[in-house]
Amino acid sequence: MALVEISGVNKHFGDFQALKDITMSIEEGEVIVVIGPSGSGKSTLCRAINRLETFESGSITIDGKELPEEGKELARLRADVGMVFQSFNLFAHKTILENVTLGPIKVRKQSKSVAEKRAMELLERVGVEHQASKYPAQLSGGQQQRVAIARSLAMDPKVMLFDEPTSALDPEMINEVLDVMTGLAKSGMTMVVVTHEMGFARKAADRVIFMADGELVEQATPEEFFTNPQSGRAKDFLSKIL
Ligand code: ADP
Ligand code: MG
Question: From atom 13 of ligand 1, which residue's Cα is the shortest distance away?
């Protein structure tokens, strides 16, 4: 069984079907880049994977376990799925170090000293260790997004989801975040990355998933996908962005 198994997932918002019978599996250590036009269901799929969004039918398992819809068990299992969004969502009134230690202390029941030691290692890994005692507003967007990545990693997730992590950043800060993500990909982390950064897709993805109108239309290696897209919708999308 793959680390993440998505099977026959359907999701409506009212009459509108945002996910249409999505089935896919993600192997441990695999890096998947999800691309597709705006409104194609990419964010909804990410949110369904960690149950920020419910769905009507189908199932999603992480390491063989289905996430319950609510309750204590959900918080614990959800911690296995790290998520980094377009907006960094750091706690404004907590320091960078506190932002990273909060989850491990509350959810993982780590002692403060253990959590802080690990947080400093992670902040160093993403290159913001010197900002540990500052507050989020004192950091650049690129630094804040790197803290958000460190904060997710502090929970020791089994899989990391990134939903357009660089699209709110000034251009000069995009690469510093993509470099951290590339390093993470190389380290063997299982990742699902929604992005318009095709350079990252070519460099880091094992597999590209192309979504359109709530459907998983194509999946292929980046090489195959970018040189020889199969569907009209993928060809059309690529002609607009490349
Ligand atoms: P993407 O991330 O690919 O741009 P989304 O997953 O955000 O697409 O959205 C897919 C579709 O579902 C869009 O048409 C969007 O308007 C719709 N949608 C998403 N969230 C909601 C919601 N909470 N209520 C109603 N419609 C929604
Ligand atoms: Mg989206």
Answer: 39
